[in-house]
C-alpha cells in the first residue's frame, strides 16, 4: 500500500516542479508573467495566459453582480464537447461575443475565425444551448448581437471612459495548450475533469487585503469579461493523495478584450 501511494505522489511532485510560479500574497506571477509547464524530457511546453488571483475573482464577481443583469453569473460547458470542437477546427481564433436576447439577458456566442477582428461576417457562428455551443440557426447569433449593441452602454462605468467590451478573443493554439495542460493535471492528480467554467467578472481597480493596489490597464478597467476554470471531481482515488488546491482550483484571466 505504501508503494502504491508513493507511486501516486511522484507525478504530483513532478507537477509541482513544473508549475513554477512566484507568489506575492494571493497573486500568482511567473518569471515571464506567463505560466509554463514542461515535462521531464522537455516534450511538453505550455505557455498560456496569466493566472488571476482568487481575490481578483471575488471582487470581479461582486462587481458583475452589482450590474443587476438578467444573466447567469457563470457558464458551465461540456468539456469533452468543447475540446473536440477546438481540436477539430482549422481556424486560428476563437472569439467569444457578448449577446443579449429580447429580455436583455446576457449570454455568450462563439465564432471560429481566421482573424481576430471584431467583424464576424466570414466566421463560423455558434450560440449557447445548455452546456454546449451549437451551430447558429435562423440568424440567432446576429439578432442577439444587434440587441447587445443597443444594450452595451449599460455595462461600463462612464467615469472610466472605456468602450464596452464586445468580444474576447483567444488563439486556437492557446486554447489547445490550456486543454492539454488540464488533461495533464487530470492524469497526474487522478482528479477527473467535470466541466469547463466561464465566470463573469467586471474589472475595477481595488486595494487588496495586503494594501497592494490592483490597477488594471486602460483596456480592462470597468469592462466585463470572464475568467476560465476547469472543474475537477474529487474521486476516491484522488483522495489517497494530498493535493494542493492551487493545482486543481485556479482561474485564468481573459484573453484579448475587443475593442
**Helical coverage, percent range:** 25-40%
Secondary structure: number of strands: 17
Roughly how many Å apart are the termini?
A: 56 Å
Written as H for each helix and E for each strand, in order along the chain, the element string is HEEEEEHEHEEEEHEHEEEEHEE
Structural class: alpha+beta
- In angstroms, what is the radius of gyration? 19 Å
Poorly predicted regions: 1-49
* Main sheet: strand order: 10-9-8-7-11-17
**Percentage of residues in strands:** 25-35%
Please outline the major beta sheet: 6 strands, antiparallel
Averaged pLDDT: 76
| Overall spatial form | globular
Number of helices: 6
Can you walk me through this structure?
The protein has six helices and 17 strands. With 259 residues, the protein is an alpha+beta fold. The strands form six sheets. It has a six-stranded antiparallel beta sheet with strand order 10-9-8-7-11-17. Strands 6-12-15 form a three-stranded antiparallel beta sheet. The radius of gyration is 19 Å and the shape is globular.
Amino acid at each position: 500500500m505504501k508503494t502504491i501511494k508513493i507511486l501516486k505522489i511522484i507525478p504530483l511532485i513532478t507537477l509541482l516542479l513544473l508549475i513554477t510560479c512566484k507568489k506575492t500574497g494571493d497573486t500568482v506571477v511567473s518569471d515571464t508573467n506567463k505560466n509554463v509547464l514542461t515535462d521531464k524530457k522537455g516534450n511538453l511546453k505550455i505557455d498560456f495566459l496569466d493566472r488571476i488571483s482568487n481575490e481578483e475573482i471575488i471582487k470581479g464577481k461582486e462587481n458583475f453582480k452589482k450590474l443587476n443583469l438578467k444573466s447567469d453569473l457563470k457558464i458551465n460547458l461540456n468539456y469533452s464537447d468543447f475540446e473536440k470542437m477546438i481540436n477539430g477546427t482549422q481556424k486560428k481564433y476563437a472569439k467569444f461575443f457578448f449577446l443579449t436576447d429580447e429580455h436583455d439577458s446576457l449570454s455568450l456566442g462563439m465564432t471560429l475565425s481566421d482573424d481576430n477582428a471584431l467583424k464576424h461576417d466570414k466566421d463560423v457562428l455558434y450560440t449557447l444551448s445548455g452546456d454546449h455551443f451549437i451551430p447558429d440557426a435562423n440568424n440567432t447569433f446576429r439578432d442577439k448581437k444587434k440587441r447587445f449593441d443597443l444594450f452595451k452602454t449599460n455595462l461600463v462605468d462612464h467615469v472610466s471612459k472605456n468602450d464596452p467590451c464586445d468580444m474576447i478573443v483567444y488563439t486556437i493554439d492557446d486554447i489547445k495548450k490550456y486543454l492539454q495542460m488540464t488533461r495533464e493535471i487530470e492524469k497526474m492528480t487522478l482528479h477527473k475533469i467535470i466541466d469547463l467554467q466561464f465566470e463573469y467578472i467586471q474589472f475595477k481597480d481595488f486595494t487588496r487585503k495586503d494594501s497592494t493596489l490592483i490597477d488594471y490597464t486602460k483596456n480592462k478597467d470597468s469592462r466585463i469579461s470572464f475568467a476560465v476554470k476547469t472543474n475537477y471531481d474529487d474521486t476516491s482515488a484522488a483522495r489517497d493523495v494530498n493535493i494542493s488546491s492551487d493545482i486543481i482550483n485556479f482561474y485564468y484571466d481573459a484573453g484579448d478584450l475587443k475593442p
